[in-house]
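Figure S4 source data
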Amino acid sequence: MNEILQSLQDNLAALSGAAVVCMGSDGEPVTTMSGNEDDIRLFREIISQERVDMLIKRVSESPLEDQAVEDTERRDVRYGAVSVLTGTRTVITWVVFGAFSDCPQEETEAQGACFRCTMDSSRFLPLLDTLREASLLYIETMSFPGEKTYSQVRALEETEKLKEMEIRKSEAMMRIIRLLESDEGIERIFLEYLSVVCEYLDITGGQICQIHMDDPLRMDVAAEWYAQGYASMYDRSLDQEKAPYAVGSRVSFWAYGDQTTSEIYESLTSQGIFAEAVAPIFINGKPQMYLLLESRVRGRKWSMENSRFISGTAHILQSIVNRRVEQNSLAGSFASLSEVLDNVGSSIYLRSVDNGGLVFANSTMRSAFARELKEDSLKEIFESRIPEGSRTGSYEFLYEENSRWYEVYYTELMWMGGQRVMLLSIHEITEKKEYQNRIEQQAYTDFLTGLFNRMCCERDLARFVDYARSHGESGILLYFDLDDFKHINDGLGHQYGDALLQSIAHSLRKIQGIRDTCYRMGGDEFVVIIPPSEFKRGEEIIDNIRDVFLKPWFLKGADYYCTMSMGIVRFPEFGTEVQEIIRCADVVMYDAKRNGKNNIAWYSGKTAEEAPTERLSMEKYMREATLHDISEFKVYYQPITDIKVPGYKCTGAEALIRWNSTELGFISPADFIPLAEYLGLINPIGQYVLEQACETCRRWNENGHPDYKVNVNLSVVQLLQDDIVDKIKETIKKTGVNPMNLTLEVTESLAINDLDRMKKILGEIRETGARIALDDFGTGYSSLNHIREIPLNVIKVDQSFVKDLAWDTYSQSFIRMVAELAENLDKRICVEGIETRGQIEVLKDMNVRMVQGFYFDRPMPADEFEKKYVLSDNPYEKQQQEEGFIDSQVMEVHNVNGIENSKVERLLLNEDVMNNLVLSLSEDEEAGVPVPREGPEATEDDGNGTQNRKDARSRGQKKTRQRKAVKRNDPS
């Protein structure tokens, strides 16, 4: 990775004239600084390392700032840093030093030595952005191939870690077992025993103590061992006061926080011990010695595996002590040892090295391999795999007789009576191997299609490239994705999209020559590698792949066609680096797609450098649009309507931002608003919207509509600013708007994710007189209790609950419940996304007044809104009267004396007119009239507006047919 970063850094430094270095997550350089050596020395004289370290810490640890630029004492010198993150973790940080050529020459000369390499100051920020984007692209494609695969690789590492622990445990047990036959002094045996046990358990120390026969409250320390950095707790080894925890006739464990007697607790904590294990050693049937194991590390707990290990080794220590006590009683020692080996949990047998005879087999061995013992085939099965001359080691093997995997540890040692034996310990690991195989398969296989995944593709491609380069041959990489695959997902459902991907994968595997070299890169993108051995059949294979997409796919009871666009790169002619080859193929694939789709394009060596970067362009022009003025951004207004007033009354509007770039044209809010938030440019844009909306609302209020209100959305980035409340106050004062007519909308997820902070900020905003609306209600994770806690005035129900409102009982029940809740809490409710007459009919029977949506009007510029809603009568009532239908709510005509009411007969909605409205809206879009969508009214742009218009016409025509059918069946 460092070589690639160094290459990227060298090239950008050479192109820009700056000095660049890359720092790792630990704050240490991972590359050598690039730039002119004399300039680098001059930069270091001007900018201290302490200032650089502070800047790196600022961008790598702040949750809100990942890029910063600092000035220096010289006007022509700046330095900046940008951090690159994966999730919430900073991976690397780029530091850039720049000397600017556009600073006045007389000032530069007056400030000191001149730089050899300089740059234009306007190129400094784009250089930081380029470093971040290039790093993210590299990390996504190379270092972190996917969350799921990364987790699987971690699981493999955990499996290997468990294996290493088992090996360490077996080695420790073997070393302890050897002590049974050691002729060393008992003190040396005890010390060796303690060192093995403490090192395996990774604890700070241990002691073997002997209780005085004549005074059970005194003891001697027979042996003690401590890890490096820890010292003995005893000033002498003999005649010590017995530790209060050296008691009992069973192995016991204690850890800090466990319930125990106050005496033991005080004794352990006073010595700084946070975990203690005690095992008694019996002599003549009484516990006369104790094994004490301790950890002085805070937080240490004993695991079940620790417990089994300590108990098992304590049995061996017991045997060692008994052997020394009984001296030459061989039978007693063998019986004790047999009992120990029968309870270690694995199959063990010993064979004489001298005569090859079987010396011992424990109970587990006799049970698991009874037939092999009877046939005397253990040597052929297990010992034949031991390398010649090896005296200790381990290996894994599959025993085909029972299809089970085993791990075998072997060592040569001296047994009772002085004979040399080979001890084999056999552990079954079938489940571990099967799990490991599943993990490996999942790590390299796509779950949905069964094809190999990106990680496997990169591994195989590297192997094919090396082979082709070393043998002077060529291979081909094909990169393709499906054209308009989104229409399948949206039109039929994702389950049918998945079925299509599976069918394509099945068809690819049937093509001769590429069965084992087909890969799914993600989504609807595939890669096929034609290896050097199949290079001569390359054209034939490409034609076979194209033939796959000439036939229709049978989905949901009908045939559907799905084409693909393909980019093709030969290797190693056009690259030897895996990522470069894949990138080139990806680029020419998009060239094929731009040329009309259902095409293939061959890489020629030029296209990659000429490929436009849409996001960088949008970022560049957005920065320019906000740097000088914000004239390219316009505020549109969508009316909010009171449906409880006869004829429907407009009560105000929601202010929505639109960007009509002079370079890029009209940009969807769904595209530029997230980018503006990411870049921090939403602050000036949001402030512009707030000021424009307040000035416009004041103008409405002064022109005969004193109750008109305006809603303004506040971004999460704006709300996180410390001065947001002050800015709102200043805007209200500057524009002269009545704060009671200003409603500020915040999203539900924002309000709930940081409830305490939002309660404070929103409370301060309400003190200005402005109202608070909770937007997108129902899509987040708020509870009903949160609605009561948040200082808000209006609840805006998300459009997802309105889509099927005319017939869906769940949607109706949800809105009715929220409306009743709002009424009880003295809050108002507004329903977004209203598009049909049927939705209005349902809402009229509920406690809902305020609604907005395309049924009433689309967002429009301020002058158009004022002409339609401020300077004229209510357009809804007039429009309905002219087109032959009136709102179907009941109009009450009151008797003069107030004695009784009479109801005017309801007039049914003319559905033909409604259909014409739907078609009219579609025709506006078709004629180029912008119909901006944002927030609840936004629909995902699939790049196929014509299909959307056809869908609208189809729905209108379907409703007309249904109405006519009803008339034919019901003459009345």
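Figure S5 source data
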Amino acid sequence: MGGLIATSDGGFAITFYTGDSINHARIGKFSSDGDLVWLRQLIGGVLLRDLVSSPDGKITACGLGQAQNENSALFVQFDANGGLQWIREYKSNDLVGANSIAGLPDGGFIALGASLFRLSANGDLNWQRQVGSKFSDVVALENGEFAACGKHIFIDGAFVKFSSDGHPILSSSYSGINGIAANFTAIIKDAEKGFVLTTNSNTSSSDMIVSLDSVGNVNWARRSGMVNCTYQGLAKYNDIGYVLTGSGNTFVPIGRGLISKTDRKGRIGDCPSMQIPIEVTKDVNIGTIDAIIMELPAHQLVDASIAVHNWPIKPDTLCASGCAVGVEICNNKLDDDEDGLFDCLDPECNCTEAECSPKQYNIWHFGYKSGLNFDTDPPTQVDNGMTDCTGISATMCDVKGNLLFYTDGLVVYNRFHQPMPNGTFGVGDTANQSIIIPYPANANKYFIIVNYSGGQVYSSILDMTLSGGNGDIVAAHKNIQLDGISASLAAVKACSFNGYWLLTRSMAQTSQFHTFRVDQFGLWLFPIASNTGTSVASVQQIKIAPDGSRVACTYRSADNGHSFVSIYDFASNSTGFVSNPLVLGEYSNLNFASGVEFSPNGRFLYVTGYFPGQAKLIQFDLEAGDLQAIKNSKVNLATLPGQDFGYPQLAPNGKIYMTNSTIVDSINWVLGVIHHPNVAGVGSQYVHQDFDLSNFHPDGGAGLGLCNVISSYYLEPKIPAFSLSSADTICVLNTPINYQIENIPCDVDSISWRVENLSTQILPNIQNATIRYLAPGTGRLIATVHTHCGTSSDTLEILVVAPHNITLDLGPDRVVCDNGVFSFNAGSGFARYLWSDGTGGFHRNHPIPRKILGKCLGPVWKPSIRYHYGQHRPKFRARPWPRFAAAVLWDLNQLSASGQFSVLALVARGFP
């Protein structure tokens, strides 16, 4: 066997060769189920030792060509379907082929053995260098550099880091104590900058796994205690350990394949293994020189076939040691078993996410060394924070509420309130806004998004397994700038995929909302742009409703300098688009809208700012009706002459907290609190200066902002109400009537439908139900939403009336030439009647057919649906009407302003 590599489609590819007198190299592509997809063979003396796969499915292999006692370095590339892309073979003195190959950021390759080869993406040789060591494996680094491992002399291990042009940056030799072999066989990148390597054995000593830091210093080295074992393969395992493959001859003369799984400290099974001392000698130079090399004709390529059999594997457990290791003790903020993970980050704790009572944001650090702990209500003040900002900070806890880390947008601090080694961003100022979003594909990683006052938005990845389990920023993913110049940050859990939407807003002549997708593949750098058609000079704050259905934004126009507060629809359950802008308020001169926040149920919007000339806190009812109704629902909850409200923030206890000060950007020692934000008007109970922050830090306090939070963490079970157009009066039986619940929140698992006190047939289909009413009566239709956190219902009162086939008949036309009382009988069979003289609606009502008092000055009366002044002779007509009647009696002289009628029409309508 040669190399093994995972492919982009979830399968894998291998290289191997036949055992006849002339080696024929073969390369095969397998599916994820182990089925052979294609197999190719190179004719002649060829060995393929390693291979690499690119994201587009191409497979590139390297190895050794042998002809007439001369060796060459061989390279070959196939597309995803096994089609040959190119073959390159290079010959020079003292070549022993290429042992390992790695892909580079520019699409090219680095390969090595006793020489280094730099190839372009199509296999052309850029340069080649001979090196005074023999290398077995290479790994490419994000900055174009690469690191290699192998051996120098005898059994000394070699670790060398090279520049992008192939010159050594540092070189180290490694030898074990008491003759233990240390020459390396495989290398992978570990965590942020370090490396993990495996060794093979030239003596009776056993295998070894070694951890080096970024400059080659030994972090730890361990061996399993098995004799005559060799590790050749190495891979990460779910970011919590490593998988090693090799061979062992413990049970001589029977050779056995060996596979081991370790934790992040190299310990196998239940045993911490043996800690091995290694001597390190720094080399000044390894004597790299340029070499003359020439290209050889390509080998012949043919299709090949091979029989693939399932093979029963019996794991060998006799080599496992029976030692005991430390046990992780959950929720003590320590790494008790020394595996680099602690508390809920360690799988041994088996912490489940408490989605119904989220605790990831139970601790806030903000402002000037201020903080709150919401494990209690009211929250407890914490005094050990290190933040220094006037803007909006961000904090993250584990699912049990234990602090993991926090940031003020300038520095990231670990749970011990120490700056992380790579946690200083180096840009921005104290007015930054930050937000933290979990990495959906990895429970130990998080995205830290920072919006600086200049409008730049940067993303960084934090890995909690770095820095001994205390966390650190991944160097290769630090300060990655997102598209455009934007302001403010908000995030919500997505409904259409497993991940989150990150929302910001550009500042330009034609402003756009930028929605970034965060899923198992990471943070997508190219946003979804939603045009608003509004020029924006600055954005104060963006908030997303907990159910993801709406967005609120305060901003200043670039056209007229006016300040606005607007709401929008947000498609969090599908596309991530922002649409349907509605302006709730426009303010000129020194008046402006500042902060916004939704109530937990999403019904009420709270806005802070100057309206006009004084700092105010106002509330809008977003379910009041149309835009004008929402505007009319505005309630002023507080006025602060000479002061300023900061940015409001919904908290884990369901209350909204906000800062206030005498001047903008000053230190705030107290917080205002909205205690019941789901209640309309003054019932929401805003209390000014309700929480004192000066108890621990007399020189501390808050700025304008508090802590940013993913809004969906505070989502309450909710069902949209039945619309006003839902059928509630049923006049026909056994006819299908459709009901629908629209805009279903994404936390809904199912919807159930039931009818009380009525005979019905129901055909439910998630958010729809088709109902047939079978008999008259009164009852209720109830739709219930079921979520993992509870249920919520809405009820519709239903009236089903009996059908009828009765016809109204006012009798024949009649001519009246005298004053008097005339009787028009509409017939029996209806409960109510509505009468009209045709002058503009049915405004005369009565429960029974009734005589009409009138005085006739014209020649003809006839039944009709409307009246005329003139020669036309209209007719009476009657038909059912959907409302009940009350009374009927006319003096015909009073029905016209002039009192004169040439022709009068009467209309009657009846009701069951």
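The two ends are 89 Å apart (CA to CA). The helical segments are 627-632.
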